[in-house]
Amino acid sequence: MANMKLTKTAMSLQDAEIRCHNFEEVALGYKKEEAMEEAMRCLHCAHAPCISGCPVGIQIPSFIEQIAKGNEEEAYRIIALDSALPAVCGRVCPQESQCESKCVRGIKGEAVAIGRLERYAADAHLQKGKQMDGKRQNNGHKIAIVGAGPSGLTCAKDLAMKGYAVTIFEALHEAGGVLVYGIPEFRLPKTIVQHEIEGLKQLGVRIETDMVIGRVISVDELMEEEGYEAVYLASGAGLPRFLHLPGENLKGVYSANEFLTRINLMKAYQQDSETPIQHASKVIVVGGGNVAMDAARCARRLGAEVHIVYRRSMDELPARKEEVEHAQEEGIIFDLLHNPIRVHGDENGWIKAVECVRMELGEPDESGRRRPQEVKDSAFLIEADCMIVAIGTSPNPLLHKTTPHLETNAKGGIITDENGATSKQGVFAGGDAVSGAATVILAMGAGKKAAAAIDAYVQEQAIHSKNM
Amino acid sequence: MFEILEKESLNPTVTKMVVKAPLIAKKAQPGQFIILRAEENGERIPLTIADYDREAGTITIIFQIVGKTTMRLQDLSVGEPLPTFVGPLGSASEIKGLKKVAVIGGGVGCAIAYPLAKALHEQGTIVHTVTGFRNRDLVILEEAFTKVSDRYELISDDGSTGRKGLVTDVLREWIEQGERYDEVIAIGPLAMMKFVSLLTKRYGIKTIVSMNPIMIDGTGMCGGCRISVGGEVKFACVDGPDFDGHLVDFDEAISRSATYRAFEARKREEYCQLMGKKEA
């Protein structure tokens, strides 16, 4: 008998008053009884629309059925068939616009809490300390993956499961991409990311850190000299955009990438960290996406009063609703319909105020959102000793600059066909390197698709060479 | 791993290290740099590649002991590995086709100026070199520069070795004596590069400086190393580190380089106390 409650089973959170002073995880996850109760809300629809909303196509009703029966390990096994990072996705996917948006229970009441259930199964599995199934029989083919973010890791897993010898090349000293440098500990504990990556290594995936492809080895050299038959470019969109305002190079002005990298990858929030971070008293975060929320909530945890400055209104905030709510609970102040026009500094070169103008919303633009327009003569100063610019990122140009015949679009994204094949034979690409900044799960979906395309390509090449 | 193969004190505050890094050695060009961590959980710091040996697969770095991380690096022994050593980063210096160049090195910047002077000399460029140091104890690479320079002057702030004065005094003299340089290359403290650039601008001599801002990743993903060049924002780690000295906003760069001064001083003091050392 299904649980016909209209709302999701509640998940406990760390109290907002307490959590805004620490970096520990905010959402505490379901207990077994809560997970089983929530799993009972699934109606096991024959057409399972939820699956179509998942970019990697997890068999959602099947895994939920196992949780309802108390078999979380079997649930995990089903999820892991399609997802390389279940504990990550259960936490950071925007389920409300993906799997849960298609859930039949959402027509009247709230959708089944698919993300929370996925997280529950993955966490239960991790607690048991079990890893994925062991290494596969080697099929004798070598594949290189550039970038150890969600897209590269997913592609690596799928190829390793098919028996390919996969090497991931990562520029930073730790694998994980945005999962380690971008998303903060309080949303995604780094031990979980490490554990997921350990699982991939047990499948036989090699990860080489400190390898900047394009500088130390080029893509052409990987293929011509190192014997990789195909390369998957998953280098992400890590190039920060700035506002190009006067005063933006004053001390105390950061890109969100720098601020978050210092905090998350370099652990600058820890007392004994070797990497410094400014402990400001009043911080302005410019932007309204998830990255802006992450930066704001980190700054709050370092002790600052934090304002989000966004040029549109609450309805247009691109961040997940849940993240905005958590930020508000933690005391982040939203200065909406505001736009910065200049940063003012003191005599020592430190930021002291941000000059903003008020905005109003006009007619909808091409993106369908109402276009913000400046209110005349509305400029005013907000005092601040730190500003974080979180207005988006672009693909890093290094790979296409150093790889002949690799075509990119006007925004710097690598051009691919629907399977991820680029203009260069044997070279595939996906994730933010193609689309520009998007979500973890879309990057994973692209990695999955590319793995299938690479498999088909390599097998076809093998037949071709046999026939010669 | 990146094993330390050799370690040599060039003077009380400057150390040379040779590190095993065959892939980097294969690709390195003058003007490029590496990023290293001296220990697990350590910070990432950029250091210019002072020399490389493609055959032996080694990279030479020369660093000044200025704070916690460089002290920690100095305390590592031959045979120990560095947890992170990534490169070659940045764009290589462009030196092709230059006929006559003045190379100006200041302090530990001489370690970066030397491989350039050597490369210029080897391609047949006439090289005039001025190197400046605070005092005689800090002098490095005097003999090495003598060998690759057609004209060489050593100066010190206090006159304890060579001529007393500033590098700009010598450069001005040479220019006024009628030396015609295609280019001046200045590498050293920001203030020195600023004053060299101001001088050469008056004479209309193209001047290249090697910028050394604060960096974290060194791959262009954070903009911590941004500087203003001709009114545009550039990332020194990918667009540089070499820039046209006449276009660089030095005052901004000098200001930004002091962002974490208090933190750096505290870390240095803590480490000195921990290791029972006197503050340098």
TrEMBL record, chain A:
<dbReference type="InterPro" id="IPR023753">
    <property type="entry name" value="FAD/NAD-binding_dom"/>
</dbReference>
<dbReference type="InterPro" id="IPR006004">
    <property type="entry name" value="SudA-like"/>
</dbReference>
<keyword id="KW-0560">Oxidoreductase</keyword>
<protein>
    <submittedName>
        <fullName>NADPH-dependent glutamate synthase</fullName>
        <ecNumber>1.4.1.13</ecNumber>
    </submittedName>
</protein>
<dbReference type="Pfam" id="PF07992">
    <property type="entry name" value="Pyr_redox_2"/>
</dbReference>
<dbReference type="InterPro" id="IPR009051">
    <property type="entry name" value="Helical_ferredxn"/>
</dbReference>
<dbReference type="GO" id="GO:0004355">
    <property type="term" value="F:glutamate synthase (NADPH) activity"/>
</dbReference>
<feature type="domain" description="Dihydroprymidine dehydrogenase">
    <location>
        <begin position="19"/>
        <end position="129"/>
    </location>
</feature>
<dbReference type="Pfam" id="PF14691">
    <property type="entry name" value="Fer4_20"/>
</dbReference>
<dbReference type="InterPro" id="IPR036188">
    <property type="entry name" value="FAD/NAD-bd_sf"/>
</dbReference>
<dbReference type="InterPro" id="IPR028261">
    <property type="entry name" value="DPD_II"/>
</dbReference>
<feature type="domain" description="FAD/NAD(P)-binding">
    <location>
        <begin position="142"/>
        <end position="447"/>
    </location>
</feature>
Automatic annotation (TrEMBL), chain B:
<protein>
    <submittedName>
        <fullName>Sulfide/dihydroorotate dehydrogenase-like FAD/NAD-binding protein</fullName>
    </submittedName>
</protein>
<dbReference type="InterPro" id="IPR019480">
    <property type="entry name" value="Dihydroorotate_DH_Fe-S-bd"/>
</dbReference>
<dbReference type="InterPro" id="IPR017927">
    <property type="entry name" value="FAD-bd_FR_type"/>
</dbReference>
<dbReference type="Pfam" id="PF10418">
    <property type="entry name" value="DHODB_Fe-S_bind"/>
</dbReference>
<dbReference type="InterPro" id="IPR050353">
    <property type="entry name" value="PyrK_electron_transfer"/>
</dbReference>
<dbReference type="InterPro" id="IPR012165">
    <property type="entry name" value="Cyt_c3_hydrogenase_gsu"/>
</dbReference>
<dbReference type="InterPro" id="IPR017938">
    <property type="entry name" value="Riboflavin_synthase-like_b-brl"/>
</dbReference>
<dbReference type="InterPro" id="IPR039261">
    <property type="entry name" value="FNR_nucleotide-bd"/>
</dbReference>
<feature type="domain" description="FAD-binding FR-type">
    <location>
        <begin position="1"/>
        <end position="95"/>
    </location>
</feature>
